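Side project, low priority. Logging it here so it doesn't get lost.
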Amino acid sequence: MNISYVLLTAAKNEENFIRQTIESIVSQKVLPVKWVIVSDASIDSTDDIIQHYTHKFNFIQYVRVTNQSIRDFSCKIFALNIGYEYLKDVVYDFIGILDADVTLSTIYYETILNKFLLDQKLGIAGGIIYDFLQWQVS
């Protein structure tokens, strides 16, 4: 495939999900050129999990934000903007914003990128969301 992409993720205390998210990306048929994961002042083991994978996969970059005192949606945007700064010298065709608690099929990004190749007017794309936590029986 002659098309490339990068990913940005802001993660705040995602120790219960981040490992599955990372596993789903490193298993992609088409890997990103770079994936910047910004730990948004996490106080659980999120940082350790991310760092474990940065040693195994050189396209993953760990960044930590520590000066977050107020917690609201703007913190996520702030963290993503910091991550974006790490992409300045990277050449890519598309950028994706990925939540830290999402898992994807191994062909997810290959499928998305093919949609862009087939339709030059396409500006944004996404997939179908299945919320498995919603379906769990207590």
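Brief comment: The mean pLDDT is 90.
Revisit when time allows.
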